[in-house]
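lol ok so funny story. i was supposed to be doing the assay writeup but got distracted and ended up predicting the structure for this chain instead. priorities right. anyway since i did it might as well share w the group, maybe its usefull for someone
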Amino acid sequence: MLTHKLSEDQLEYQKLAREFATREIAGSAQKYDQTCEFPQAIFEKLFETGLVNVAVPEKLSGLGLGCLDSCVIAEELAAGCSGIAGGVEASAVAQQFVIDYGSDEQKDRFLTPLVNAPLLAGFTMCGGLKSGRIFYRKEGNRYILSGKHAAIVNGGIANWYLVAATEDRRETDSGENEPPATKIDNSTFSYFLVSEDDDIDFGVRVHGLGRKAQVISSARLDEIYLNESALLGREGEGESLYRCAMVRTYPIIAAGMVGVARSALAHALKYAKERTTFGVTISQHQAISFMLADMAKDIEAARLLVWQAAQLADQNIMAVNEAVCAKSFAQEMVMRVTTEAVQIFGGYGYSREYPVEKLMRDAKVYQLFEHSGDALKVDLGRHLVTSV
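and the output, tada:
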């Protein structure tokens, strides 16, 4: 059952994250939006606060926090700047797969270093199949990964990566002189844990429309040899792992969208109470007040959907629909709210001298990050019409 009130511990995490975001992140948002650099110094300070890697189990010296705890923290950091917070968000997504499905050996090898030093994890976007072609084959007791991917989050700055790869199957035609033909089965894929020491060749960094401090890079894997222990779960069950993990990862990503929208509303409200037309502040005009009211109610609705999905995940309930609803609604909400914020600023709204145009660009990136809202609605609709 959804309970709106946060616990005392959650309120403390919320306060700590909000104070850090206000003090260290918000003031640097414009700088890193312009330079597109990874905010290493800010990340190291954030690591010292203990607000990074919060879901790592206690037996590995982590905090072992739940999904709702992580969502509360994620919202506050993204309210400061979702681009700066993006590295931590992506690392949390990759870690969740290892926390849920990794062996004891994998957990110790890949999670423990993140607790002991300011390090990040990364992952191939969208299950690895929609923005890249990475293949694997098995020789003896080793896996060999080859191919390229257009979008690896935290690519080039992470300690390790969650890489999705499709099996490379070779079949020989009936013709006597025909060479082997490669037949690719895209219906299944597998996840591998690849260390930074495995020589992934990172190429061009993607400079997107928004969230510019978040590092997303292209990469090439050229015959990378991995031990059997690098396989996460079993071969061919990547889609299953993704659908199970998204119960926890989608709410965390959606919480960041709530933070961005909340920041947009705060800026719009402040401006509306200062800007005057016809002798009164524009906040007193009914059209503007209705816009602000719609923004506020949509943000609250999105937050409650996120909290509901997170609480169900903390109860170990496979609430896939709730997680999809939270992310899909938040994607539409954050775009709508930030666009309205720009509208309230009028001609100043699209000027880079004011913060709302950046927030609108950040929102657009969120609309496409780890499956678009339309793709999620297709998935949800298919499940609704096929379920008994």
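The radius of gyration is 22 Å. The domain at 8-118 is CATH 1.10.540.10 (Butyryl-Coa Dehydrogenase, subunit A; domain 1).
back to the writeup now i swear
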